[in-house]
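Incident log, support desk, overnight shift.

02:14 A customer reports that sequence design results differ from what the structure should imply. Their input is reproduced verbatim below. On-call engineer (initials T.W.) acknowledged and began investigating.
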């Protein structure tokens, strides 16, 4: 199963319990940064910190340990470094997000181990090849429709909703056809047509 934007801990746990070999894209904030820390002045992101599942803590790029310091009733967890070590770190100004100068914190939940496993799973060449097939399925169309402004149905009832969605899809398909004609993908004799002023 290929999914995107669904890397919540509860979803990963459900996949695991159901025995589903899922391919879930890593959330934007947790992807390994394309640029190394020493190559520019970028801010440190969560992916720059290594999670130690056995000891339930994070390690920063300078090898400081960020232990668990707070756990909420909803399962949210906060890990934080030592303020003295943070202040002496070369990355402090690029790492700490606190305006008061507090030590760096990492926020996650009780499923960080599963999240890291999925991250390593998706880094494999085989996984990348499988995930490429997602581009050929229907889900991107739903994203395009949503980005076009459709956020929910204005009617109730299965038949009415089906009718409204048919209109939404028809409008989406018309946009696709017009774009294809404008760019010469279909009816190349009409390619490069100039848009009429309103």
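02:41 Re-run completed on a clean worker. Output:
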């Amino acid at each position: 199963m290929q999914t995107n934007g669904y890397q919540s801990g509860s979803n990963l746990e459900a996949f695991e319990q159901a025995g589903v070999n899922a391919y879930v894209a890593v959330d934007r904030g947790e992807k390994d940064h394309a640029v190394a820390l020493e190559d520019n002045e970028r801010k440190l992101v969560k992916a720059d910190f290594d999670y130690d599942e056995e000891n339930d803590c994070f390690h920063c790029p300078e090898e400081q340990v960020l232990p668990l310091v707070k756990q909420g009733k909803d399962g949210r967890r906060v890990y934080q470094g030592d303020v003295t070590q943070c202040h002496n770190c070369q990355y402090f100004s690029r790492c700490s997000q606190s305006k008061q100068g507090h030590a760096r914190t990492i926020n996650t939940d009780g499923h960080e181990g599963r999240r890291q496993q999925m991250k390593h799973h998706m880094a494999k060449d085989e996984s990348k090849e499988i995930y490429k097939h997602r581009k050929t399925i229907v889900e991107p169309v739903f994203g395009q429709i949503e980005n076009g402004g459709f956020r929910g149905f204005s009617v109730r009832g299965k038949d009415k909703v089906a009718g409204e969605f048919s209109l939404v899809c028809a409008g989406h398909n018309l946009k696709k056809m017009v774009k294809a004609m404008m760019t010469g993908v279909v009816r190349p004799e009409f390619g490069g047509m100039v848009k009429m002023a309103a």
